[in-house]
Here is the input.
Amino acid sequence: MTVDLFEKFDSTLDEYNKLPEGELNPFTVSMDSVISPTEAIINGRKTILAGTNNYMGMTYNAECLQAAEDALKNFGTGTTGSRVLNGTYNGHKKLEETLKDFYEAKHAIVFSTGYQANLGVIATIAGPKDYVVIDADSHASIYDGCAMGNATVVRFAHNDPENLEKRLARIRKKDPDAGILVVIEGVYSMLGDQAPIKELATAAKNHNAYVLVDEAHSIGVFGKTGRGVAQEQGVENLVDFTVGTFSKSVGTVGGYCVSNHPKFEALRLVCRPYVFTASLPPSVVASANKALELIKDSNLRVKLLENSMKLNKGLANAGFNMGTTGESPIAAIIIDDKDTAVAYWQNMMLEGVYVNLAVPPATPNGLNLMRCSLSAAHSFEQIDYMLERFIKVGKDLGVLS
Ligand SMILES: Cc1ncc(COP(=O)(O)O)c(C=O)c1O
Here is the structure.
């Protein structure tokens, strides 16, 4: 008898099949057209985009568009090759130079996505004899990097330096000579909280461990020149590897890792998610390069955090149970049960506001969230509209009294 390899997905499919088909299915949203970084037509309805991680609104920046168009004309639609074969163009090398300049770092490597950057760097530098010590609320790409590298994985309680210290002490007692990599995120994407990098990295250094910080949700957003939370907190000297993505504040796609480790360039030869995949299209590389230049000196950070504070405060004042405080561009309302969360999401769509329905396993502590990620491109009027709609739907569904 053939064992059905898909049997293990039956319960997931049962859950999924309860959702309606078409526009009210949260997992099949399709944009008919996009008007701007903050508006699209979805199912024929003009919709405010309140959950796209487009923090700086770079997707329609005129200079980024021009750079992409020029590259498209001059270099074609794709490279059709790996970085180690025919897939390195001058643009890729220039982008790595821009990253080195942006971070004042000695080395920078560009990957095809942020997911692959974590997968590649973690799996390659932490092998079977090593340990990776990760925050329990880490992104899937961090977990997958750990699994791929076959290191021993140890989790510590979210943002808890004392707990990290204990875990590291235990590892060192057992294995005094082990290689250890501690992995944290600058900003955690679901509840928008920042890592206390100084305390966590100090614990790591006390035990001779390396520190990797994933600044996916913080590049462009935090720090004087937009390098992220480590820059904001003044602790970049404690970080050995910075990973990030171009898919959020940079407004396109791609990932990177920067470091001062003297042997870092070895990754170009041994890191499988770098070697065995096609490189980024030249137009993407060109727009990422331009966006990084713009982000460095941007005052959009101020507007972005003002927007976030306005939405977070407005929702909290209305009486919602908030998972966020406005310290980052993320606003998340905690909804008691999954069915209400789905209904909430559907009603918001009908009211012309797209937010993220975030449910386990993507969320910490089994939370159901209506998650927004603000953009500097949102106007205060748009935020007022979001607030009104959140309150209306909240009252309709009995989430707000
Ligand atoms: C913390 C974190 N790391 C990495 C990634 C992956 O980024 P990308 O979309 O470039 O694959 C994400 C994306 O959501 C993320 O939130």
Remarks:
- The pocket of pyridoxal-5'-phosphate is lined by residues 113-115, 118, 139, 141, 185, 189, 214, 216-217, 245, 247, 255 (CB under 6 Å).
- Residues 300-318 form the longest helix (19 residues).
